[in-house]
Amino acid sequence: MLFSELNLIAPILKALETEGYTQPTPIQEQSIPSILQKRDLLGCAQTGTGKTAAFAIPMLQLLSQQHTNTKGPRSIKALILTPTRELAIQIEESFKAYGRNLALKHLVIFGGVGQKAQTDALQRGVDILVATPGRLLDLMNQGFINLRDIEIFVLDEADRMLDMGFIHDVKKVIAKLPAKRQTLFFSATMPAEIQKLSDTILTNPVKVEVTPVSSTAEKIQQAVYFVEKNDKKNLLIHLLKDKTIETVLVFTRTKHGADKVVKDLMKINIKAEAIHGNKSQNARQRALTNFKARTTRVLVATDIAARGIDVDELAHVINYELPNIPETYVHRIGRTGRAGLSGVAYSFCDGEEKEFLDDIEKLIGLKIPVTEDHPYAMSWQSLLSAAAEAKSKGKKKPNQREPRQREREPNLSGAKKKPQGGRKPNGNGSTAGASASGGGNKRFGGGGNRRRD
User: Fold this and answer.
1) Is residue 182 domain-shared with residue 237, that is, in the same domain?
2) Is residue 448 domain-resident?
3) Dihedral over Cα of 300, 304, 305, 310: its sign
4) Cα separation, 70 vs 68, whole angstroms
5) 47 inside domain
6) Same domain? 63 vs 23
7) β-pair partners for 346
8) What pLDDT score does 338 carry?
9) What is the mean pLDDT of each run of 10 residues along the chain (453 residues)?
10) What is the CATH number of the domain that holds 361?
11) What is the pTM of this model?
């Protein structure tokens, strides 16, 4: 099927042609017609399947057809709620690309930066709002945002919202939405709490499931390295001696671990940067930009920051530490092998992580090949011994979720927080972090990139 067969309007088809898109992915082919019919939709799809375009394209068409008069005051007609800043920025860029020939205005808001550029854009009028939960609720409480005119609501990466501790904030937002609306719900996995949430906010939804979470991309070459925890640094440096590894995304479980890996690599003149929740938004965007431009060879990330990292032609991913939630492994290695390209995913496994590996292999339905030809190889006997010792000491079981790692978004508004109730707009704050566009406007970043500390 071609996009031209999906009953899309000419301005959107022209934008897709500019982007080089001719054929929709499976989730786009299945979702776009249903959304255009104004049906609620439940999508189970992992990142990298093209789901952003699956909801952005039909939303742009519906809103452009329903709101032809753009001269009067604008109110927010569509809300896309997503867990991370990087993903929010990526989604807004998609709306900008697909809607370049339309008169709709869109804005992305997130925490970690000053609010003034964001509130200025809101006061000028916005049709489509992309937001992270913390900043959205903050600006709602201040009186800058009202959701009474929302016609389309998208909850993206719902399972990640749960993992990050945002689920209660999501419910607060949903409570402020009008009852009559179209709702699009996307999640890579369907744990019980997410399934229950979807049941309460969707009405007779169309269900679309593409690439089950247990599957890993066929073109990704996977390998596991058994190694002592203290030798992981040396093994990483050993692998990076291979000059064919031009860029690599390295995953750690903690922010401290990410910073330590960067420090170790920088000591031997390997350019590396970290991206995690303690970094300012400007620092995170700078690190991602440098990585995409290949001026930084190694980007070290935590899972909190990983969703939304979309790098073309990324060939290598390394799990410096295995995740204790097996689905996370699938998301991590899905950063490579995108758009039909091949990719390589290496995983380091010490004795304490052996149970994590077992759980991952059970989920994906295959044994990951073991690479023994390296100078820091850990014997099978030593691995089993360490695994048994870790188990006897009561280490975290594979299916036990990490403690909530909610990325608290700093209050950079310049106003003191009140425990309850709203505030009148005060307009204070630094001028960074807003991106608003409409009709081809390339504006990004508001009035400068200054961050109030």
Assistant:
1) no
2) no
3) positive
4) 6
5) yes
6) yes
7) 223, 318
8) 62
9) 93 93 90 97 81 95 82 88 89 94 95 92 96 96 96 93 88 96 91 90 93 67 94 96 93 93 96 87 85 92 69 85 87 73 89 92 90 90 84 56 42 43 40 42 34 29
10) 3.40.50.300
11) 0.63
One-character DSSP codes across 261-304: HHHHHHHTT--EEEESTTS-HHHHHHHHHHHHTTSSSEEEE-HH
Three-state secondary structure string covering 200-264: HHCCCCEEEEECCCCCCCCCEEEEEEEECHHHHHHHHHHHHCCCCCCCEEEECCCHHHHHHHHHH
Taking phi over 0 as left and psi of -120 to 50 as alpha, with beta for the rest, 384 belongs to: alpha
Give the count of beta carbons closer than 10 Å to the beta carbon of residue 98. Answer: 24
Residue 446, domain member (yes or no): no
How far CA 63 is from CA of 106, 144, 257, 413, 439, in Å, comes to 12, 22, 45, 31, 14
154 touches 170 (CB < 8 A): no
Quote the number of domains for the chain.
Answer: 2
State the residue range of the domain holding 229: 220-392
Q: Is residue 260 part of a domain?
A: yes
Rounded distance, CA 372 to CA 303, Å?
A: 27
User: Mapping DSSP to helix (H, G, I), strand (E, B) and coil, where does residue 67 land?
Assistant: coil
The amino acid sitting at 223 is A
Give the position of tokens 């031009």: 246
Residues 189 and 71 occupy one common structural domain: yes
Residues 6+ apart with CB under 8 A from 405: 163, 164, 165, 277, 304
How much is the pLDDT for 170?
A: 95
Same domain for 177 and 258, yes or no, is no
Q: Answer with the one of 359, 377, 392 that is the final residue of a domain.
A: 392
Please indicate, yes or no, whether residues 376 and 227 belong to a single structural domain of this protein: yes
